[in-house]
Each structure stands twice: as structure tokens, then as C-alpha cells.
Amino acid sequence: MTLKGESIEYNGKITWFVFLSSIIAASGGLIFGYGAAVTAGLIASFVASPVTTTLGRRASIIIGGAAFLAGSALGGAAQNIYMLIFGRLLLGAGVGFTNQSAPLYLSEVAPPKYRGAFNFGFQLCVGVGCLIAFFVTYITQKIKGDWGWRISLATATVPALIQTISAMFLPETPNSLIQHGHDQEKAKTLLQKIRGTENVEAEFDDLIKASEASRTIKHPFKKILERQYRPQLVMSIAIPFFQQVTGINLIVFFAPILFMTIGSGVSTSLVFTVVIGIVGSITTILSSLIVDKVGRKVIFYIGGIQMFIPLMMIGGIMAAKLGEHGGLSKGYSILILVLICIYVSGFGLSWGPLSWLVPSEIFPLEIRSAGQSITVAVGFLSTIIVAQSLLAMLCHFKYAIFFIFGVWVVLMTAFVYILLPETKDVPIEKMEKIWKEDRFWNRYVGDAQI
């Protein structure tokens, strides 16, 4: 990669060590996809920031898995409402810690050339977790008595147990080791093992410089408000917010109801929902193969177009047909399904995984944990707002709700075009250069010193 004529490229390759470590870290997405208390997750994301900074990324992942494990076990064995509430709080705490630390871990251990592909594993696990949760709920709801919901809650111990136990074997990231003042030779040896080469001087020197800068920061949440970090602050708020106003919640939360509304039976609507989940997961896998080749912005553009057109068409079809007859013919129902699959594939290609990747790779070390906490908290808060208002919007706007989300897709795609620099191939500890070279953000971060 070249920045103003200077090539910045670290030595290293994809090793089994970093591959297995990334799989373990990405598995944290399973518990997020499986579902948890959103409010408790929002609060926990801020608590997780100092923990991730002080104890490290690995410790935060373990705490998240253990909290989710305890919450799911407590929920399954609940004897009263208080046990259920406390269990939900623990579930949310687990998600908050995991979402705060796992994407950071992935971005720090992955080779810069393949950082996007490794980070996408988190979103893939989120999608798989959602599918597992759907199947478990579908099966257990038919069980008589109170065993159905107990089994549904207790089953969540499986992904939590996988994350907690496997994370104990994770190494800490070299970035975190150096930041905590550990033996530099130990950190360098780990970096050599991760990269599969002894020639890691360039990357190691950058880690040392980043660590020295981070140690001078006592209050990262206060620091991120300074003018020089304005680009990162804007992205940490805008990107997770935009992810939630893509309209994906309209599809995920109300897909069964939507299909029943347009004339499909209960069983058919459930099958359609599974198909949608599978389509999203497959598209995320395909996107991981190209994200480090074509770049983040191109995928944002493609995904934006791929989501905008179906939203407009679905709104148009429902306005023209559903309002007249109170239902849709089989042909139009199939067309709606196809359009929704196209939309979901666009989300799985772009805003689904990129909303985790981009924030996790843009923050300098001194504000990295704080920035990720803001990203996670804004995502949770936006989820709460959208989820709570979605039913009222459906009742009030009806088919026009698809047009509303379509407008948001246009706005967020324009935002990416104007304000988000390309981060492909840029080492995570060199990311400040993209802001210094950007025509808009340069006024905030000062002249590029490259």
C-alpha cells in the first residue's frame, strides 16, 4: 500500500496460529447472534472499555463468555422473576463485553492485508447464532409445560461454553501486551509467531510508538472528544447508527409476520425466514473473499445499491397490490421473497460485516477501547430505538416504511462516499495517515506528517 509515495507494508503471512486464534475470537459473535438483553449489553460495553484496556482483549472475551454462560444457566433454572431478570442482565453483560473486545482482537492479530476477511468472521458467527436461536426457539416452543422456554434459554450455554473455554487458550495480542508494559521481547516473540516470520521490525516499532502514546492518556473517553480524534468519533457514532437504519430489523424481526401479511402460511413464512438467514451468511462469506481486494468503500457502494432497489420495489409492490386486495398472489409473494433475499444479501455483503470491521480498525491505540465501546453502545441504543418504534411505524406508514429505509440507505452511502477514507491494506497502527491525507478530515487532524 502506498500513501503519498511511501510504501507501508509489514512482513508476515496467514499462519495456523493466527487463523485458529481468530476463529476462537470470532466465535464470540455466536452469543450475540443467539440473543440477549440489549439494555444490559449497552451498559456493559462502557464497563468493558477499562477492562479491555487494563486486563487485555483476551480477558474481556473470557469475562463476556462467562457472564453469558452464567446468565443462560440461571435463566434456564429460574424459579422466579428475579432470577430471570438477573439472568437477562448477565446475558446482556456477556454480549457487551464480547462485542467490545472480539472485533478489536480480530483486527489486531490479523495481517493488514487480510484484516477484513478475518474480522468478517465475527459477523458470520452473528448470523449463524441467529439461525441457531431460531431453530431452537422453533423446536422448543412445541414442548408442553415450562420446559420449552427453559430449554431455549439453557441451550445458550453451549456457545457461551465454547467461547469461554476456547478463549482461555487465546494468546493476548502483541498490541495489548506492549500497552500493558509487559516484556517487549515476549511481545516481539509472539508477533513473530503470529506473522510466521522473524522479520517484524517495522510492525513492532510501530506498536512500540503507539504504546508510548497510549500511556500518556489517562482518560480515553475524554480524549476522544478532542478535535484531533473527530473523524474517529464521528465514525464510531455514524456507522453503527446507519447499520440499524438500513431496514434490516424490519426484515429480521418481522419477516414471519411480513410473509403472513402478504399471504403466506405460518410454516411457509418460517421457512422463508430460514432462507433469509442462510442467504445473509453465504453472502458474508463471499464478501470476506473480496473485501481485502476491492476495498471497503466499493463494497459499501455495491451493498447500498443492492439494498436500495429491493426496498423501493417491495414498497411499490405492496402499495399497488396489497392495498387493493388485502393480500398478494403467489407470484407476487415469490417476487417479494426474491427481493428480500437480494436485500439481505446486500446487507450481508456490506453493512452487516463492515459495521464491525471499520470501527475496529480506525482507532489509535490510546482511544481504541473507548472508541469501540462507543460503537457498541450506539449500536445497542439504535437497536432499542428502531425495535421499539418499528411496529408503530409499520402501523402508521404501512408500505411507505420501505421507502423511508430506502432514503436512509441513500444517505449512508453518500456518507461513505464523502467522509469515509479507504482503509484497505493500511496497518492498524498507521491508520492516522488516512485522516491526514483526506481533504475533509485534514482540517481536524492537521497536516499530514508522512
UniProtKB/TrEMBL annotation:
The keyword Nucleotide-binding does not apply. The chain crosses the membrane at residues 14-47, 59-79, 85-106, 118-139, 233-258, 270-291, 298-320, 332-354, 374-394, 400-420. It comes from the Eukaryota. Keywords: Membrane, Sugar transport, Symport, Transmembrane, Transmembrane helix, Transport. It is found in: Membrane. Residues 1-424 form the Major facilitator superfamily (MFS) profile domain. Pfam families: Sugar_tr. GO terms for cellular component: membrane. It is a multi-pass membrane protein. CDD domains: MFS_STP (cd17361). GO terms for molecular function: monosaccharide transmembrane transporter activity; symporter activity. Belongs to the major facilitator superfamily. Sugar transporter (TC 2.A.1.1) family. This is Major facilitator superfamily (MFS) profile domain-containing protein. It comes from Buddleja alternifolia.
